[in-house]
């Protein structure tokens, strides 16, 4: 059964359960596991009614048999788990009759993986404390606390506070430790010298490049030299000017909403942000709320899932399993993870405030190119990456043949969608205000494997993506560190020789540093897209002889690319040549490139007040190996455009007439595309647009993003928090 057909079958099952020959059980907070579970509420005699726990309902379904399906209604209330609900092969339905677990209609059923903390006593001032001896928190779990459903902050220095910088206030590495650059550094402050104990103290740090962050334990602090030593070795050296802060420090518990967990005494210290009267304080204690392993034809729908140390839902080696219409929040890891199996779906969910990312899909066999056919569809994923901020994405898709569609992804520190594998379809997604805290990333990202081909990006919107990063050490005469935005963020980033990707019929706007970035790849098609205020629309460069080169060759050989199915599915791999690092056979055709402003600062491609719109940057590479043609170019200030080659003998901008004289863009035109309502970011084109005369097709903007159906967790979706990133911003930091 296909995933879509299964989705319909779930609806039928839910609607016809009363007439169908299937077991139906109820779970309620006023239930009793000794009862039959067949009644939605206790009877008048008080001797029968719903079950109390999810586990009892699962056992009852097993005993009844699920060959004809099954239904579990979970009624309003909070269900605090002490262990995951595990569903396996024995809990499966059939193609015609799935097993459905769902919140009762119109009721909010919360599945909570934390333990309420109720017995607080005064500690000092307004700080409270509670004994956590019996909580048995998972070892190595991230430190989390939730107050009335809101994530609280591990007591930190500097305090998060209000600051123009992403993530609030930071401390900064002063000098590098040459003796142990991956584990230690010197800071300007001797603050840790005043702390009674360093046990349990952590350091959240961006050690070197602004594409990677982690949380590491603090091992020691030398007050005389102000040297910080971490308890683990990082993969990058720790360089001057990089951001960090200390957290889980009892002496720094001085701001409302901060907490500290003392592992030695098993004590929680907490400074509440508001009155504790009738407040719910929860510490996550369960790793995963619902784990399905080997199950088939099961639907999990309509729940609010929260307060766990890892993901809320894990679907492993399952067939036709659905997680739909759920609100997933306040997790330590991802919202939902699908691993292995086939035809599983995460659909219609609101996923936010996660410690890592939103949805992860993995499945299929890359060596045989067998698709998994998983889907992440119609999900609202936002404000993720609360703990681990880099490479924790709105959606991660890996393996073969999955689909990511109609998701709204926004307000995140790093990548919107990350892809690995083959033959995936990424379509109708709206991605904006991502890459808020990192650089060298994008709304979409993939890289470092020549064999990851056949992937299609179509009908998506990428907009308001600016990036944030360290622009230079001791830049300028002031001798200070400079962080700035926009900084090294792209709409679609085909990094490290990504090849064989189709980027077609997407809309890019306000991505000032580049719409599509091709980093040394080949056989990529960029066709029939709209670029507005992307400077440039396209960048192509060579790749260098870097440390990852051996890894890429290993990945190439691992796929047996010279034999079927790779040799027949991707014959271009047989034509790699002696230097596959060089881009070749890329195509940029039928695109609309429009510029309505000149005041973005980019990576030497656009300057404030410039009257020249740079549509391509080529660095350093022979443009003869790329096809540029039949594009429509428009600039409101002047009809002048340029292409920059960066060759040693041609370092200057190439004016448009010269560019065409060299044989490029022969059939391209300079004209107004006549957008319908550009002031409202509606870039569909009027009927008299010259683009249509050129064979350029319109893009159905109205089909992009979330849509309303029976499986949406909320409608309209919660209001989006918009970030003002349209202007150049710079932060100057004392060394």
Please tell me about this protein's structure.
- The chain has 735 residues and is mainly β.
- Helix content is 7%, strand content 35%.
- The strands form eight sheets. It has a 14-stranded parallel sheet, sandwiched between helices. A 14-stranded parallel sheet has the order 3-6-25-28-31-34-37-40-43-48-51-54-57-60, with no helix packed on it.
- A hairpin with a 2-residue loop joins strand 8 and strand 9.
- The longest helix has 14 residues.
- It starts with a helix and ends with a strand.
How are the secondary structure elements laid out?
Blueprint: H1 3-16, E1 24-27, H2 54-64, E2 70-74, E3 77-80, E4 85-87, E5 99-103, E6 109-112, E7 114-116, E8 121-124, E9 127-131, E10 146-147, E11 150-151, E12 153-154, E13 156-157, E14 171-176, E15 184-187, E16 202-205, E17 214-222, E18 227-230, E19 243-247, E20 258-262, E21 267-270, E22 281-284, E23 290-293, E24 296-301, E25 304-308, E26 313-316, E27 319-324, E28 327-331, E29 336-339, E30 345-347, E31 350-352, E32 359-363, E33 375-377, E34 380-382, E35 395-399, E36 403-405, E37 408-410, E38 417-419, E39 425-427, E40 430-432, E41 441-447, E42 456-458, E43 461-463, E44 469-475, E45 480-485, E46 489-495, E47 502-504, E48 507-509, E49 516-519, E50 525-527, E51 530-532, E52 538-541, H3 549-558, H4 566-569, E53 586-589, E54 592-595, E55 613-619, E56 626-629, E57 632-635, E58 641-644, E59 653-655, H5 656-661, E60 669-670, E61 675-677, E62 682-685, H6 690-693, E63 729-733
Parallel strand pairs: 1-2, 2-5, 3-6, 4-23, 5-24, 6-25, 12-20, 23-26, 24-27, 25-28, 26-29, 27-30, 28-31, 29-32, 30-33, 31-34, 32-35, 33-36, 34-37, 35-38, 36-39, 37-40, 38-41, 39-42, 40-43, 41-46, 42-47, 43-48, 46-49, 47-50, 48-51, 49-52, 50-53, 51-54, 52-55, 53-56, 54-57, 55-58, 57-60
Antiparallel strand pairs: 7-22, 8-9, 9-21, 10-11, 10-22, 13-19, 14-15, 14-19, 15-18, 16-17, 16-19, 17-18, 20-21, 44-45, 45-63, 58-59, 61-62
């Amino acid at each position: 059964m296909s995933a879509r057909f299964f989705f319909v079958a779930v609806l039928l099952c839910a609607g016809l359960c009363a007439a169908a020959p299937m077991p139906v059980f109820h779970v309620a907070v006023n239930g009793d596991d000794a009862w039959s579970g067949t009644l939605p509420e206790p009877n008048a005699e008080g001797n029968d009614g719903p079950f109390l726990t999810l586990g009892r309902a699962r056992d009852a379904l097993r005993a009844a048999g699920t060959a004809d399906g099954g239904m579990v209604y979970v009624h309003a209330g909070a269900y605090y788990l002490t262990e995951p609900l595990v569903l396996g092969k024995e809990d499966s339905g059939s193609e015609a009759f799935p097993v459905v677990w769902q919140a009762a209609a119109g009721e909010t059923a919360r599945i909570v993986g934390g333990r309420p903390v109720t017995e607080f006593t005064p500690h000092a001032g307004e700080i409270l404390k509670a004994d956590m001896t019996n909580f048995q928190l998972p070892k190595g779990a991230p430190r989390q606390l939730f107050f009335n459903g809101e994530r609280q902050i591990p007591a930190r220095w500097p305090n998060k506070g209000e600051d123009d910088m992403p993530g609030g206030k930071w401390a900064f590495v002063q000098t590098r430790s040459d003796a142990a650059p991956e584990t230690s550094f010197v800071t300007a402050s001797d603050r840790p010298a005043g702390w009674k104990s360093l046990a349990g103290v952590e350091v959240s740090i961006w050690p070197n490049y602004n594409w990677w962050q982690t949380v590491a334990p603090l091992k020691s602090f030398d007050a005389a030299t102000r040297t910080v030593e971490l308890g683990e070795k990082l993969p990058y050296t720790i360089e001057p000017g990089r951001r960090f802060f200390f957290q889980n420090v009892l002496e720094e518990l001085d701001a409302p909403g901060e907490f500290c967990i003392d592992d030695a005494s098993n004590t929680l210290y907490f400074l509440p942000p508001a009155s504790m009267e009738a407040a719910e304080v929860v510490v996550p204690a369960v790793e995963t709320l619902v784990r399905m392993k080997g199950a088939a034809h099961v639907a999990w729908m309509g729940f609010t899932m929260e307060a766990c140390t890892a993901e809320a839902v894990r679907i492993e080696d399952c067939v036709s399993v659905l997680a739909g219409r759920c609100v997933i929040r306040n997790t330590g890891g991802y919202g939902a993870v699908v691993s292995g199996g086939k035809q599983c779906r995460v659909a219609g969910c609101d996923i936010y405030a996660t410690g890592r990312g939103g949805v992860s899909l993995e499945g299929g066999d890359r060596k045989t190119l067998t698709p998994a056919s998983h889907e992440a569809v119609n999900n609202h994923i936002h404000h993720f990456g609360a703990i681990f901020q880099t490479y924790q994405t709105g959606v991660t898709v890996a393996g073969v043949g999955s689909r990511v569609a109609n998701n709204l992804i926004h307000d995140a520190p790093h990548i919107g969608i990350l892809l690995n594998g083959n033959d995936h379809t990424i379509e109708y997604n709206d991605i904006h205000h991502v890459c808020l805290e990192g650089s060298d990333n994008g709304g979409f990202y993939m890289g470092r494997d020549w064999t990851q081909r056949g992937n299609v990006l179509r009908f998506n919107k990428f907009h308001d993506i600016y990036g944030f990063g360290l622009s230079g050490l001791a830049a300028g005469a002031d001798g200070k560190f400079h962080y700035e935005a926009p900084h090294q963020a792209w709409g679609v980033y085909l990094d490290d020789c990504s090849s064989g990707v189709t980027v077609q019929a997407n809309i890019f706007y306000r991505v000032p540093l580049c719409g599509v970035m091709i980093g040394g790849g080949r056989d990529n098609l960029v066709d029939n897209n709209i670029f507005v205020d992307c400077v440039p629309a396209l960048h192509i460069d060579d790749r260098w002889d870097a440390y990852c080169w051996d890894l890429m060759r290993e990945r190439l050989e691992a796929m047996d690319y010279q034999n079927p199915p790779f040799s027949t599915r991707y014959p271009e791999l047989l034509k790699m040549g002696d230097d596959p690092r060089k881009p070749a056979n890329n195509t940029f055709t039928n695109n609309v490139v429009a510029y309505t402003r000149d005041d973005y600062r980019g990576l030497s491609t656009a300057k404030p007040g410039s009257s020249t719109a740079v549509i391509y940057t080529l660095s350093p590479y022979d443009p003869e190996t790329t096809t540029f043609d039949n594009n429509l170019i428009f600039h409101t200030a002047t009809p002048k455009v340029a292409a920059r080659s960066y060759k040693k003998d041609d370092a200057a901008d190439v004016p448009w007439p010269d560019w065409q004289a060299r044989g490029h863009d022969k059939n391209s035109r300079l004209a107004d595309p006549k957008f319908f309502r550009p002031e409202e970011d509606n870039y569909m084109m009027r009927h008299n647009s010259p683009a249509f005369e050129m064979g350029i097709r319109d893009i159905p903007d109205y089909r992009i993003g979330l849509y309303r159906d029976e499986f949406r967790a909320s409608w309209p979706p919660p209001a989006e928090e918009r970030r003002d990133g349209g202007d150049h911003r710079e932060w100057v930091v004392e060394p």
